[in-house]
Amino acid sequence: MHNKNVVPFITEKSDCGSDHPVCQACEVRACGMCSELNTDTLQELRKITRTKEYKAGEQIFCDEEPTENYATIKSGIVKLSKILPDGRQQTIGLGFPPDFIGRAFKDKNSSFASALTDVTVCTFPRELFNDYLKSTPSLEHKLFELTLNELDSAREWMLMLGRMTALEKVAALLLDFSDRLHKARLLQGLDSEKNNFELLLTRAEISDFLGLTIETVSRQFSTLKQKNLIAIKNQRFIDILDRPALDILAGHENY
Questions:
Q1: pLDDT above 90: residue 78
Q2: Which residue from 53, 113, 190, 229 has the highest number of Cβ atoms inside 10 Å of its Cβ?
């Protein structure tokens, strides 16, 4: 399915060349896909790497279209979604730095990827990257590890969606968003307060993500406020007032 409203990226910068500082200065390199590469292999990967920037709302990948590139998120948040045959949209995940987006060794994209905030990514042409993976076991192993971590997270969300109450789902989402946003900001050298953050998902996107109605989501936020677990400023800024209680509500054993 082709989306005629795709907005072209704002910038595209070549990252090749041995004297280019982009990889050495990359905030997320130490814990992302490239963390297993030495100087020589990193230089080889950089030859096929391009840095692209997207404004919030722009589309990065289109579902079921031929895969041209994969990407690693350097900054910002990416929303992954699927469109049902009747036109309904389902948010299926969020990508934070240094997540890898795209499905290696697959000819078509498996979901829509759009910029939830302004986003910067490193992109790699599919065929060249697949060849590079085969010749670089350390990178292939790291990507496999990241994929398994993503699978574990997906299974946890399946459990949440199938067994938790609406209130527990919203509590779990807030904690997950808070933790991942906090980690991403620290990786980029930015100040971050774990219990105070901007919830960048709309109520409609939250309802899609959790399988709830917008009205139900709004009621759960009201309940969390009444219990003095959170405070909400300007509809988007969340203050977690009692994190241990929110953790217990979300079913977390350790906090």
A1: yes
A2: 113
